[in-house]
Structures are given as structure tokens and as C-alpha cells.
Design brief:
The protein is α/β, with parallel strands linked by helices. It contains 12 helices and 11 strands. It has 2 domains: 249 residues, 3-Layer(aba) Sandwich (Aspartate Aminotransferase, domain 2), CATH 3.40.640.10; 133 residues, Aspartate Aminotransferase, domain 1 (Alpha-Beta Complex), CATH 3.90.1150.
């Protein structure tokens, strides 16, 4: 008789991350699942091909993909997870799973730019209406929900500008009208915010970020709170012909083992650097939800258990040339569009901002920072040198 399945829910995060998705008894005692690089699965009986609920093709995912899905559920909860080839792929999969021609989706105005592009192009071309709403609307979303509204898409905090949404209030309003809710929960890594405990139907994760943690593969996931939602996403996944590469799934699963340690360091370092930036005369505002000065701090404190390593800062007005000198001369911070990895990144964001429901107004340039694994004192020194260039 095999060993009983271990109940991970009684353990703390670090322990769950170390154990999730592991089943040495299945794999000759190996501590990690095998990586099957295969397209074809051969079956011994004719009835196996069509009549049994078994795996018949490698695109459906093998041991390592299954282990990763189990691990994701162990961290964030829910009925099940479906992998996608990228974070954007996870966002689009979730939307396509609930959208209908002739219906509409309500999308936060602070949504990730590529998700917005998908909504404004492919969704609209397929006859799906899209309306954007103020990310701080909270329960007021009820006034926007119409007879043909199929879903509300949230992202909290919002991309680039870090508005924290009142997700429980939005979920309550949507549920009362039978409308599905989706949240891009990448910032919390599924650790600091629990969507299903707040009544949200689907959670999207860009596993490229904190779960992977090493800036060397792409992957995303959609998690569903209920079995019927999981079945709906899996059906859409199969209809679209999506798949997740086994080697990439292995890298994400390996990164997941150390995520708690990395996330703790990056969150603490980011908050230290945010406090430093608040003290600088060149800075107009720091957009970090864990700071008491953030306008949504109370909502963040109510719903989140911690913060990750990504935030933004608004500078006071400065000439473009001086800003370029500051950024291009940084030694530790590099300019790049990703985040959540071991390396610290910084980008100017103003050209990436699109707002139609709640106009963005700022005193000066907007910069987004992703804090990596370097020592915060070294990163602060790098920024101090940058501010010197900004002034000259």
C-alpha cells in the first residue's frame, strides 16, 4: 500500500514550498519529478485511445507539469491550476475562458499594458466589448455591471502606478450578478494575497517573475477557485492548443522551492529603498502600498500579508537629458521590462501609460523599480550616485 498523500495545508509557506509536487514513491525515490521531453504517448489497447480518462498526448503535460500545478495550488489555494507559455498567455487564457461574443468584460484601467492591447484588439475583433474602470472604484463596480457583462478583470496593485483595488468589494458585487471575476495576482506571487479567500473566481500568475526567480524562462498559470471554473479553463486551454514546455516547468518548480526566502529579502529590501526614496528632495511621491503615505495603504493592510519587491516613484520635474544621465549611469540597476528576478531593474514608465477611465496625473517622470537579491545598501548607493547625475 502506498504512502498516504501528505496534507500540506497544516504547514507554513516555506515547508509547503519545499514539499509541494513531490512524490518520490512514483519516481524510484527521486526527490524531484522527471522531465519528459515527449510528444507521443503510446497506448497498449484500442480503448485507451478514445474511451478512458487518461493522458493520450504530451501536450497535456507530464509529471513535471503536474507537479508544478500541484505546487501552485499548495501555495495559493483553489481547485486546480492550468499552465500557460507566458504570463500574458495566462491573462489571455483566463479572459477567453469567460468571454462571449456579444458580451463584455470590465477591465481595470491600470491593467498590464499587453493585456490591455489584447482586450483592445483580439477581444474586440471577436465581438467582445471592453470597458475600463477606475481601479479605485471598489463596490461602485455594481453600477457598471450590465446584463451582458461576463467578467470583471482586476490587477492589484496595478501595473506601473500601483493602485490597490478593493477586490473583496468588487467580487461581492460581481457575484451578486453572476459575473465571473479574474485577478492578475502576480505582484503578491500568490503568497501575500489569497484571491479565493476573498471570493474571486480566477487568479492569474506570471510565473516568469517570482516563482521562477532567475530570469531564464517564461511561464504563466491560471488558478480557479472552484472545480467548474478549473474545468472551463482546462477546456479552453485544450481548444487553443496551448502547452507548457517540460524544461521550463522544471525551472519554475525549482525556483519555487526558494521563493519564500527570495520574496522575503526582496520585499524587505524594497521597503528599505522606498523609505530612502521618500527622503530624497528629487522625489515627489513613492508608490509603494506598504508605505503609510500610499493612498490605498489601508486596503493593502487589510487584504495583504506582505509586500513584494516592485514599486514605483514619481520624480519632481526634470529635463529628459538629466533623467537619461541618471538611468544610463547606474551600475547595479539595469533597464529592462521584466521584474521579480534576482537582478534589480529600473525603467521610465511614462511612455507605457495608457489611461481612459481614470486619467494619470503626476508631478514628473514615473520610474518603476524591481528590487533583486543585491544588498539594499549597495542599491541605495547606486541610486544616490544617480541622483547626483540628475542634479548636474
Amino acid at each position: 500500500m502506498g504512502k498516504a498523500v501528505r496534507d500540506l495545508s497544516k504547514y507554513r509557506l516555506e515547508t509547503r514550498l519545499a514539499l509541494a509536487g513531490r512524490d518520490p514513491a512514483r519516481f524510484d525515490g527521486a526527490v524531484g519529478p522527471p522531465v519528459h521531453r515527449t510528444t507521443t504517448i503510446v497506448l497498449p489497447e484500442v480503448s485507451d485511445l478514445y474511451d478512458k480518462p487518461i493522458k493520450t498526448y504530451g501536450l497535456d503535460g507530464m509529471a513535471v507539469q503536474e507537479a508544478l500545478c500541484e505546487a501552485l495550488v499548495a501555495v495559493e489555494g483553489g481547485a486546480g491550476a492550468v499552465l500557460a507559455p507566458s504570463g500574458l498567455g495566462a491573462c489571455t487564457l483566463a479572459l477567453l475562458s469567460v468571454a462571449e461574443a456579444g458580451g463584455e468584460v470590465l477591465v481595470t484601467d491600470s491593467v498590464y499594458g499587453p493585456t490591455r492591447r489584447f482586450c483592445d484588439t483580439l477581444l474586440k475583433r471577436f465581438g467582445v466589448g471592453v470597458r475600463y474602470y477606475d481601479p479605485r472604484i471598489g463596490g461602485g463596480i455594481a453600477k457598471l455591471i450590465g446584463a451582458n457583462t461576463k467578467a470583471v478583470f482586476m490587477e492589484s496593485p496595478g501595473s506601473l502606478t500601483f493602485e490597490v483595488q478593493d477586490a473583496p468589494a468588487i467580487a461581492d458585487a460581481a457575484r451578486a450578478r453572476g459575473v465571473a471575476t479574474i485577478i492578475d495576482n502576480t505582484w503578491s506571487a500568490g503568497v501575500h494575497f489569497k484571491p479565493f479567500a476573498h471570493g474571486i473566481d480566477y487568479s492569474v500568475q506570471a510565473l516568469t517573475k517570482y516563482q521562477l526567480g532567475h530570469a531564464d524562462a517564461f511561464m504563466g498559470a491560471v488558478l480557479a477557485g472552484a472545480p467548474q471554473g478549473w474545468a472551463r479553463v482546462r477546456a479552453c486551454y485544450k481548444q487553443l492548443g496551448l502547452g507548457a514546455a517540460p524544461d521550463d516547468a522544471y525551472l519554475v518548480l525549482r525556483g519555487l522551492r526558494t521563493m519564500a526566502l527570495r520574496l522575503r529579502h526582496q520585499g524587505e529590501a524594497a521597503l528599505e529603498i522606498a523609505h530612502f526614496l521618500e527622503s530624497r528632495s528629487e522625489v515627489a511621491r513613492v508608490l509603494h502600498p506598504a508605505l503609510p503615505t500610499h493612498p490605498d495603504h489601508a486596503v493593502w493592510k487589510r487584504d495583504f500579508t506582505g509586500a513584494s519587491g516592485v514599486f514605483a516613484v514619481v520624480l519632481k520635474p526634470v529635463a529628459e537629458g538629466r533623467l537619461a544621465a541618471m538611468l544610463e549611469g547606474l551600475d547595479l540597476f539595469a533597464m529592462g521590462f521584466s521584474w521579480g528576478g534576482y537582478e534589480s531593474l529600473i525603467i521610465p514608465c511614462d511612455r507605457g501609460l495608457v489611461r481612459t477611465a481614470a486619467p494619470w496625473r503626476a508631478e514628473g517622470p514615473l520610474l518603476r523599480l524591481s528590487i533583486g537579491l543585491e544588498h539594499p545598501a549597495d542599491l541605495i548607493a547606486d541610486l544616490e550616485a544617480g541622483f547626483s547625475r540628475l542634479a548636474n
